[in-house]
Amino acid sequence: MKTVLICHHDDDLNARALPRWLGSFSEVAGIVSIEEKSQQKKNRVKREIKRLGYLRFLDVIAYRLFHRFFVHAGDVAYETRLLDDLKTRYPALPANIPVLTTASPNSPETIKFLQDVGPDLMIARCKVILKPEVFSAARLGTYVMHPGICPEYRNAHGCFWALAESDLDRVGMTLLKVDKGIDTGPVFGFFTYSYDEVADSHVTIQHKTVFENLDRIRDKFLEIEQGTAVRIDTTGRKSGNWGQPWLTRYLRWKKAAKARASAKTFARA
């Protein structure tokens, strides 16, 4: 099975570790490495402001600052340990694998690149909504490992919002096939693990929903290749379109998480 990975160039786990994992069960035919321009990032901010309004967007900014000063170091330490572990588990790929560096995965050069390498299956680990000409370029389709249980927690930071909503049974990752909507395609799997909502940040939790399940995700991709994978019916379930974390909801979640942990400790005593 020939695979292609689409990811951001500065995301070490996806850009440096995930290709090694892919190479353990497929032929990595190419990598699309996204280097966004500043205007693209500004446009993303404008869309979020339009969606939330200026007052609520200040809540988003407050969370970003809080995370940078009080949480970020722990996330980086975890990611560094994980990257080292994955490098040990999976060998390096050949140096001659084609890599396209582009500002957008929807660019004409991306489409040409995909036509040239002819992937059977693509994995998109990016923040960009893909055009049909891109996500349909692979014979078996393009798939995302979405950090959230769909359809309840679509779009951004699904794990965070499930935790913030105390919806603890829906903290996980969805493997789904990309279509024209936002995380609305056919679902092929839900993956979670025994997370620690007190000790871990939501960033670490959403990473672990993927990287703690690499063997199971691999097996699902092989089933897709063999034509034996079964889609999960999500008909009739509530659908939610979420966005960036808010500091107010983060603090409320952590307070509730500590209360739940204390209650469990008291119950065992």
**Shape estimate:** globular
CATH architecture assignment name: 3-Layer(aba) Sandwich
State the separation between the terminal residues, measured CA to CA: 53 Å
Mean pLDDT: 95
Helix content: 40-55%
Give the name of the CATH superfamily: Formyl transferase, N-terminal domain
How many DSSP H or I helices? 10
The overall strand count is: 9
Residue share in β-strands: 15-25%
Largest beta-sheet details: 7 strands, mixed
H/E element sequence: EHEHHHEHEHEEHEEHHEH
Residue windows where pLDDT falls under 50 for at least 5 positions: none
Q: Domains counted in the coordinates: how many?
A: 1
- Give Rg in angstroms: 19 Å
Lateral arrangement of strands in the main beta sheet: 3-2-1-4-5-7-8
Q: According to CATH, what is the topology? A: Rossmann fold
The secondary structure category is: alpha/beta
CATH class: Alpha Beta
Description:
With 269 residues, this protein is of the alpha/beta class. It has one domain: 3-Layer(aba) Sandwich (Rossmann fold). 48% of the residues lie in helices and 16% in strands. The protein has ten helices and nine strands. It has helices at 12-23, 38-52, 54-70, 72-89, 108-117, 132-135, 158-164, 202-211, 214-226, 247-268; strands at 2-8, 27-34, 99-102, 121-125, 142-146, 154-155, 173-177, 187-191, 241-242. The strands form two sheets. It has a seven-stranded mixed beta sheet with strand order 3-2-1-4-5-7-8, sandwiched between helices. Strands 6-9 form a two-stranded parallel ribbon. Strand 1 (2-8), helix 1 (12-23) and strand 2 (27-34) form a beta-alpha-beta unit. Helix 1 packs parallel to helix 4. It is globular. It starts with a strand and ends with a helix.
